[in-house]
């Protein structure tokens, strides 16, 4: 295990330009508390597509891949190593590791919100560039070299590696659910969008006490999947125009509107539409606008009159990932990870993700 | 339908004294907005046992039976009649009706808490005595005469009558869940007690996002039922003494204690025990002390040091019953309603309930 | 006291058209539980101006005046009469009466939100037209005839009548404060707007634990008043353009933004501006958009990224008015009630209110 | 400044045994990021008395004094040093430093509760023993040597040193206020106990929107002080027995009980008494049981029936101290710091504190 093959992104280019190059890299000796991991699976994420379009900054040359499962090949030094829950990490364990909040900045300490850490770092583009030690700093590779002090999670033996790549989207929704104050038991929930975040929102709402879940999105195959995972109703945005979508939600809710709406669509117009779907005193979560997609005309009178509560959610803290394991253990995930690519096909994987042919693609090196 | 047979309780006596007498009563003509209901099922509740022991006051002579399902036989007058959700009530509908909060007292209006209404009235002992119009004022009877202005609920067609009698216990736990701020997704929940309230707490917790549920109680058959309804672990109080019970909960929770504990046992000592089982910053719900069972020594330092939040829950508002329908529609309830008695056997039903031979007994007239 | 002079609004016309006519009306005999009140003071409200412009519907012919203080002249019948807190109402008491929620509709009962009652009625335009019994149905009159079952409040003896007219704006802010979850002790609060609602928001924030309050508005005299009532900083919108206003708030908050922003301006653009002023995880209350003033382009990414919580507040429940008495008892209010008009000058009062020459005008008949 | 006089506690002994010895210690050279502080004032705390009675463990030999204000004499190294809010620390600044939470343990990260840090360290007994580098590890000394990475706070220029010693009690109440969900505007608050924590609770409640505050305690002089700081009513426990105290609170609250009760008495019986004083749906904060004072019989039925919410509060996070500065800036504190002792009189100071002759004593070296 002296060398590792790794997909390097020398500079930002679109997927069509096939920007990744497979290189072979010397594996540096392990420092105390560092971990060498044999990559088992790395998720391909919408964020990776954004990176290749220059919309999310990374440090190039980069190794992408931030939804990672690895098997512990070696641990540096003799000191026992623990994961974020206090469990000892052992050679042979299946692990993931989470974005590292500094726990010292204003947002981490005074606001108590590590998801908004001012100095957060993560493998897959943000920790150090790929031409600096320890080089193996992202999941699109055969091996990763995990820095001492990383936020490791030893995966329970009953958890599939697929759970981790889906857990990246799920933890955002667990965090979002916390930010809206949880569901009131029996709430009717509308989900706008049926990508990975929307579907995780659906499955989470189902398991967190929703009485009914309505999913609005496209294409039809994705909506069929939503129904399979528990959506009571689906509305196809390619078939039903906005005013009728609003009308349908009102009809499904005795004319009152939904208790809760999760925006997981990433389209500004969805917010205007969704605010018409929420009931008096209802709650609206903006979870799909990680990127800046511009403005939408909104009417403050509507918010004032219906007393709607709107909130946003940004990434997640470690606790939200851990809480999400509850769901990932019990829901069958095979149908959600729709595409598997070898490391050599990383360019193809990103092209497929960009074309939204995949619900969730993974690299299995 | 001029006469109705009804089980009258002339005065307070224990179940062993067989206090109920079956009488035949003239059915008064219907006033505007009144409803005549043919009783379909009436639950026998622990509260009824308390009434017969003089621990919960009622107005005698009484007709007990406060967990009622009836079929609408006739509606007084021509004005359309609506249930609490705004749905029109029709002859032939299966209905229940909830304790009526006055919506005018301090607790109803200023505190906004109809469950604590200062002038709440309910069929089954509290509305008017059985020797006053309209006589048919409880569920242990062939017919009920439901006063105008009652809080009716038209049952959805897919809902079994059994759901309503269990809904009486469930709504308390829905209310309790609201009072502790809902579950945080993935919470480990301990349930102390496995009577109807405890089992409803278990099933609710399971459906409201609990990651793991531990039920503590007896007898073994009841615990087996708990496992069938989703308990991950059960602890038999007849087999495991208190210190070991605490120890087991700690071991099941990495030594930290449960996120949430529901007390549904009704025994003061359970509170002292349960506070040892809850984690730092955890939450403790007292739901089992509807009756005064005396004091227990508690240590304020424990609450201070672990920053435990304790709260109590008293009955429920209409909204909690309605929210509970979510659960009652999806969970099979047959095994929970363990005993069925004809109206003539009401004394036997109460004896069985007092002996805790039943999980839930019903009168089917 | 057989006749009463009353300012009748025969039809909707603008203030400039001097729409009110003073008429003399027979006082109907009192029904059981009704109250005849001698008007002491009636506030002239921005809502009255909206009514005259046809933006808020009323039932004409109307008697306006919904911020009322009267002295009890007579009580119908012999039954003791109680106010909403349970205090007995006596002849000679100074009283007000609040908009009456039905306490039976879906919003009152299931949502538990009487401020959103579907059938709310209020004196001053909404209870019955002025050509129907009991005729004296608004505050711009010598006497009012208050219907049985009204939500009366006996004013504490140490409370000035002025408190009630200001209490109409204050209760909205007490309600709004509740809806944002209260202030965290020491919060920096920005108030957008310095009309009656904004100033009440300022004084409330000061008394509810704000560490610092920044008021943004105009004209300069109003801002001077804001400083007198406790504003730490004021920003004059006629002198400082939007980008610099945002910049000033950021500079006053170490670049982080305010913990809480209250929108009391009624201008859609204020919402876009205010969202730039609020910190990460901060809270934004929309209190100024009672009327529909159109849309404003907002960026969902901003809400998502800063995890801002936005909520709206609509009117108030009785409890919020009662809670506001705390403040009205201790703050000197003379400077806030800037203009006093006799009943004959009601047209002049409305013209002055429309021109925003007054902070708060009252009719003293 | 080569040597510093310091009050060393060689071993645990009661105040009467005069356990402190004044020694002279070499000041070690400053490491990078370390701070040498000239002590300005150190509070003598009830916790110090507990330490001398062996009820709160410390590492001996110890330097006590955990409520500290110092002037920065020197800063080690050239790197700019920042306080917890991001403000640069300069020679000459008046500073304090807070207990240091590790921000890595389960409670700090997963629970998000640094006040319950599993590895918290603090000057004044808990960081390192006094015979280990850097020796000057508590406030009862001429100088302190503050370790790199400490949680410093640069005091605003308008803040008196007294504010910091009172801030130690205040931050607990700011934290407690957060844990009960803040005050609802206008709440009636009962404070049980009028030591430093109780008085801080009083002043905080007053400034955080309480409508009325009732203080229960002794002696009469302390209650007079409470009235001076805003208590509306006081009840002297040496004059009024428990049942009458409960009766008085009920009478002051229309028979309903207080909205909120703060227990700051440290006596278990106070909890039983206080639960009788709180209204339906009211809240009870246990803040006075930092030490284990044993059990008290409590009735779970009372909690269940009144739906009381009880919670505890343990110490505080940095944010609570910072939030408390709001109050400490505006309230005159001279009367609260009742006794000042030179360093040589540290034994006398502890004797006075033990006898509760002082409200707050300080060491001014
Ligand atoms: Zn991702
Ligand atoms: Zn950070
Ligand atoms: Zn029952
Ligand atoms: Zn009531
Ligand atoms: Zn008004
Ligand atoms: Zn209503
Ligand atoms: Zn202290
Ligand atoms: Zn820690």
Automatic annotation (TrEMBL), chains A, B, C, D:
Gene3D superfamilies: Medium-chain alcohol dehydrogenases, catalytic domain, NAD(P)-binding Rossmann-like Domain
Domain Alcohol dehydrogenase-like C-terminal: 196-320
Listed InterPro entries: ADH-like_C, ADH-like_N, GroES-like_sf, NAD(P)-bd_dom_sf, Zn_alcohol_dh
GO molecular function: oxidoreductase activity
Superkingdom of this protein's organism: Bacteria
Annotated Alcohol dehydrogenase-like N-terminal domain residues: 32-156
Keyword set includes NAD: no
Stretch forming the signal peptide: none
Record has Iron as a keyword: no
Pfam family name, one: ADH_N
Keyword annotations of the record: Oxidoreductase
Name of protein: Zinc-binding dehydrogenase
Species this chain originates from: Litorilinea aerophila
